[in-house]
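Appendix B, record 7
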Amino acid sequence: MGDLLDKRTKRAITHVIFDMDGLLLDTEKFYTIVQEKILSKYGKSFDWSVKAKMMGKKALDAAMVLIHEYSLEGILSPENFIKEREEMLLTLFPDCEFLPGAKRLINHLHANGIPMCVATSSHRRHFNLKTTNHGEIFAMMHHIVVGDDPEITHGKPSPVIFLVAAKRFQDQDDPPVPETVLVFEDAPVGVTAAKNAGMSVVMVPDPALDIGLQNEADQVLTSLLDFQPSDWGLPPFPDGQE
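Structure tokens (predicted):
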């Protein structure tokens, strides 16, 4: 794990796009807790195979997956599921923390002038809650693209969110072409979206994710602590931090 695959781009990486939930911030556990509570009322248990299908999707799309997988059509509507889930999540989001290696990597790339942004399926309101205590780090991003942005017409695995994110580096002299953009993702649907955009992808999946859903990424790591920028032609960490 961690080896680069042959399909990796040969072009130098100039820009970085981060997913957020489950990649930078440890929020996925909150979704699991809340969804388990809701399903328990219907005598059902939340399964990781279903979670894998929901991860990275827009809220309504993810809710439709859950309703279908648990045969709750006519019993629980996607809209009511989202409403009930929302009420519980709003109290949890402000307490989320960075995952290991996230702050170190962001600080390093920022210090070396590598343009970065976040492309998340989370809506702006949720993004604001999740980053309540982390404004200093997210301020290092060139821009943020959220799931309810008007230009995001389709959710992942559509490449739209990553193409929009790359386009918004346009105030620079040389806006990036997809082959020079490196995306960090934790969800299979996000990896597919990035590959559909023509970009390279480093995947940092949850340990519980089926290994068969990790094949599409160019590099798979157990943690952002394992990422070596020099593997991708990016400035290496200072001596002692590799």
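Remarks on this record: Strands lie at 15-18, 116-119, 143-145, 181-185, 200-203, 219-220. The chain has a mean pLDDT of 92.
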